[in-house]
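Continuing from the previous page of notes. For each protein in this section, the sequence appears first, followed by its C-alpha cells. Read the first protein now.
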Amino acid sequence: MAAISALGRKVMDYVKTKEFRDYVTSTHFWGPVANWGLPMAAFRDMKASPDIISGRMTTALILYSMAFMRFAYRVQPRNLLLMACHSANVVAQSVQASRFVVYHYGGGAGKTPAVATVLASTATPTPTAADNDTPFATDTTACD
C-alpha cells in the first residue's frame, strides 16, 4: 500500500511542475487528443453495417495514419501520444478494410440480414391461383 501512495505522490508532484503545464498546453498534447476522434469513430463504426464503409476513404486513412505514425516517431521530441493514436487508427481502419473486402468481394453483400429484411418487407406478394380461376390460355395459331 505504501508503494501505491508513493506513486500517487510522485504523479501529483509531476502534475504540479512547469514541464507538465507546458506539455498540456502544447500542440504535442492537443494535436493527438483531437486526432483520437478518428480511431474512436472507426471502432464505433465496427458495429454498423459494412455496406456503409467506403473502401477509398478507409485506404486513405490507413496510409495517412502510417505516414504520421512514422512522423510522430521521427520528430524531436518524439510524440508518442500521436504515434499511439495513429497506431490505433491503423488497426481500426484495417479491421474496417477487412470488413469492406469480405462484404463486397467475399459474398457478404447478398447474405446480410438487413438487406433480406428490407427486401422481404417491400416485396409484393405473389398471387396464387384460386379454385375457380380459369387457366390462362395462349393462342398457338399465331406462332405457326
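Done with the first. The second protein uses the same format. Note its length before scrolling.
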Amino acid sequence: MAPKIPSSVDGLRAAGNQSFRNGQYAEAGALYGRALQLLQAQGSSDPEEESILYSNRAACYLKDGNCTDCIQDCTSALALVPFSIKPLLRRASAYEALEKYPLAYVDYKTVLQIDNSVMSALEGINRITRALMDSLGPEWRLKLPTIPVVPVSAQRRWNSLPSENHKETATSKPKETTTTKSRVPSAGDVEKARLLKEEGNELVKKGSHKRAIEKYSESLLFSNLESATYSNRALCHLVLKQYREAVKDCTEALKLDGKNVKAFYRRAQAYKALKDYKSSLTDISSLLQIEPRNGPAQKLQQEVNQKLN
C-alpha cells in the first residue's frame, strides 16, 4: 500500500526532504511542488516559506540535470527573499553547467559578499575565473554583468540563521587548494601567471590593493609555484588589515621558498597586529639569521619586545 501523501505544507516539505535524502529527486520535487500549490492556495503571506520551497525544488531539478527549471525556481526564490545564499549557489551551479559563465560568476561573487567563507562559492569562483579568462581574454571583467551590492541587512540575516543552515555551504574544500596544487602548470600557464603578477605589482604601486589581490589571485590560478606572488598578496592583506589572510599567504610563500625574507617580515608584522608576539619574534629571528643586518626587521624586533615587556 502506497504511503499517504501529507495534507499540510509542513508535512509535504518534510516528506520532500526525506525523499531528497533518499536520492529520490523527482519525487521530492513533486512534493515540494504540492507544498507550493497548497501554500499559494491558502493565500499565505509567508515569503520565507515559499522561497525555501522554490529553492528546495530547484535543488531537485539541479540533481536531475534540469538546469533551466532550476534557474527559474531559484529566481522565484530570490524574488521572495533577495540575497538568500542557497538559491544563489544553486542558480550559479546551473548557470555554470549551461556554460553561462558570466552569470555564474555574478551569483558566486554575490554569495561571497554575504559570507566570504562559503567554500562552494570560493571553489566556483576559481573555476569560473579560469573559464572567463580563457574565453574572454585579459579584459574579461569589463564584459561581466553588474554585480549587485549586498545590503548589510542580508549579511546579518545570514549570520543570524541557525548553524545547520550553513552546513551545505561549508562542507567542501576549495578546489584551488586541491586540484590546482596537484596540477603542473604548462609553459603558457606560467607566462599568464607572470603577466598577472606584474599587473598586480603595478596596482600596488598605484595603491589599488584590493584590485591587486584579484590579480595575484588570478595569477595563482594559473601557477601557484611562485613564492613572491603569495608574499606580494600578503602585503596587500596587511595594508587592508586582513592579518589572518596575510599570515596564510606568507606561510604558503615560505613553503615554496624557506628564505623568502619578505614573507618572514610580513608574517611577523601580521602576528604583531594579531598580538601573537611570540610568533612574531620567531619569524623575525628566522629573518635575521638570513639577513643579520636587516634594519626594518631589527626595528620590528624592538617594537615587539617592547610589547612583551
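What the second structure shows: The longest helix spans residues 187-205. The chain has a mean pLDDT of 87. We return to this in next week's lecture.
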